Amino acid sequence: xxxxxxxxxxxxxxxxxxxxxxxxxxxxxxxxxxxxxxxxxxxxxxxxxxxxxxxxxxxxxxxxxxxxxxxxxxxxxxxxxxxxxxxxxxxxxxxxxxxxxxxxxxxxxxxxxxxxxxxxxxxxxxxxxxxxxxxxxxxxxxxxxxxxxxxxxxxxxxxxxxxxxxxxxxxxxxxxxxxxxxxxxxxxxxxxxxxxxxxxxxxxxxxxxxxxxxxxxxxxxxxxxxxxxxxxxxxxxxxxxxxxxxxxxxxxxxxxxxxxxxxxxxxxxxxxxxxxxxxxxxxxxxxxxxxxxxxxxxxxxxxxxxxxxxxxxxxxxxxxxxxxxxxxxxxxxxxxxxxxxxxxxxxxxxxxxxxxxxxxxxxxxxxxxxxxxxxxxxxxxxxxxxxxxxxxxxxxxxxxxxxxxxxxxxxxxxxxxxxxxxxxxxxxxxxxxxxxxxxxxxxxxxxxxxxxxxxxxxxxxxxxxxxxxxxxxxxxxxxxxxxxxxxxxxxxxxxxxxxxxxxxxxxxxxxxxxxxxxxxxxxxxxxxxxxxxxxxxxxxxxxxxxxxxxxxxxxxxxxxxxxxxxxxxxxxxxxxxxxxxxxxxxxxxxxxxxxxxxxxxxxxxxxxxxxxxxxxxxxxxxxxxxxxxxxxxxxxxxxxxxxxxxxxx
Length: 649
Hints:
Radius of gyration: 34 Å
Number of strands: 20
Number of helices: 25
Largest sheet: 5 strands, antiparallel
Strand content: 15-25%
Helix content: 40-55%
Distance between the termini: 37 Å
């Protein structure tokens, strides 16, 4: 995960390009390797609005960073990191993944995207009957299942779904299920197609998916539920507070909401989702199926009116209370287009795109069918293929040309080895001509796409640039991991020496070990203050003040500094019971049991920060050595022109 994030950052900060022609102005050289001004200008402008560090928006400062980047890439190449098997494999995998965005048929893709949008904007409610069948089921079994589903279709139309469901569902070979509402991408594409092309209250004809044969009853259709924006208060199931568990805590907070206290204020004080608590618990808008928690999503979409608040409920993340802030319809097509296109290409419907691509590539590369070859391979097949023991004959014509894809010649041996490696012991007994044709189509299609992919860097400048960016990002990660990160973590002697020389940098802030009471009612917090002064425990105070099912006071206990959400910035860190402080829309009082003064951290306590700081120092020293190893020469006249051009942009 860290590696991927680091490479992505490299994309943003230093997006490299392919080698430019030598008639371009050279901005600087790294050991005589030129770096062109055009590249620097493009990258600077690309990142100008992305970087947060103002110093990087200054040309001289950015140039220094860019030179350092080029020095590191030079060193990575000199060390041969670009030849390491793991690097080569990962780059290859990335190229293959990226190529999918370029190996597409725009016309077919656009049609599928429009279809997906319509189905995203409209949900269907359906039930189905499935007779499980192996994908290679015999024609006899297939016909039997088909005819059985025809009979069940007639019965459903006459009797309704439930009687048929009760009779035929066994959960093993036959499934009769109520599926509820769903939209695009929730089912396999063949099933989705049948559901969306069948009228409401009608039953489809039998159709096949990879699971077997189905019929689907469409019971209703409606517009999709759109998006929801909510705020939430979350309490982790695993928490540090010694006094109460998550469920107890969330119900106390819920009581305070029912008593009229501000949801946003309570979220700021008590929600343990730190990414949203400071914003009153507000989350980014989401649509159905977008969240990883179905429990959370179901509750959110169950709220009807803006301002409605849910009862406490549990998800895999902890306990929540949700407040509905906004609800909206499905976004317009242009807004969703890029997201839908990505999903279409990942979905099984992408096979339609692949078929169109293959047909286009056959024309582009002038690929001719070879019936003679298929007949030959059919003639050398035998029963051993069904047992996994088939071999190519001794007189096999291996060198003969099977097919030509542009400049690439594929031989009989290439296809013969493919057949040999793909034989299966459990393969269904199809006719040999069908086996040969299916394998040949798969083999040719794969080779067509592979050939285009291998030549894509020559055919698409955009693809070539992105691949180069990723290539350099991977190199830089591997180099930094070897030279800086791993070395800094394992060099215990150097770390200890750095700590000894910089101990004054590593200190604990002033902290308190305290019980902090919070209430929106000032009278209640005054009572809590007096009870604390009398030496009563938080449990006793809660029992006394939270009566008749009303939660008037909540305690937070533990070691806290000024940044802790339970305390105020102006709270006095002195032993004893504090005065009452205003905190958001509530009041707080603290019983400070112990004051922990500022104190030096031990080596172990500060080790994480020591490693981070030492890495900065080590990298600076390393870069100085790289500058000696690979001399950098900046062309000042070109730099002057670059600054002028950037200033005028």
